[in-house]
Design goal:
Layout (H helix, E strand, L loop, with lengths): L3 H33 L7 H31 L3 H26 L9
Helix pairs in contact: 1-2, 2-3
Length: about 110
């Protein structure tokens, strides 16, 4: 019989895989888009970086979700939760940094 722990571990691994795949697919799409049309544009490199950033941001969201599932549902120990907290802080910092670079403003600032 399959236990909840096994299902949660499998779900975490699946979501981790989706996160990595999203980042790789984002890289491939951004690179293809740059090679086809971006090199001809004045801001082509900026668009390329923005496309890459969007792929990384979306992938990070999946990776954080997988970490939460595996830590809380599979191994809810104090040490595991502390490690999860540190991972989420680092990934949140990366996400905010990428968002600031992509949009040129802090997330809490109104759009112009």
């Amino acid at each position: 019989m399959v236990s909840f722990r096994d299902v949660a571990e499998s779900a975490g691994l699946l979501i981790d895989s989706v996160g990595v795949a999203v980042i790789v697919i984002g890289l491939v799409i951004a690179t293809a888009r740059y090679l086809v049309e971006g090199r001809k544009l004045a801001d082509g490199y900026k668009r390329y970086r923005q496309d890459l950033g969007r792929g990384i941001l979306l992938g990070l969201e999946f990776l954080v979700a997988a970490d939460i599932i595996r830590t809380v549902a599979v191994a809810p120990t104090v040490e595991g939760v502390l490690v999860l907290g540190i991972i989420v802080l680092i990934r949140t910092f990366l996400s905010v940094s990428l968002q600031v670079e992509l949009e040129g403003r802090w997330p809490w600032q109104a759009k112009e």
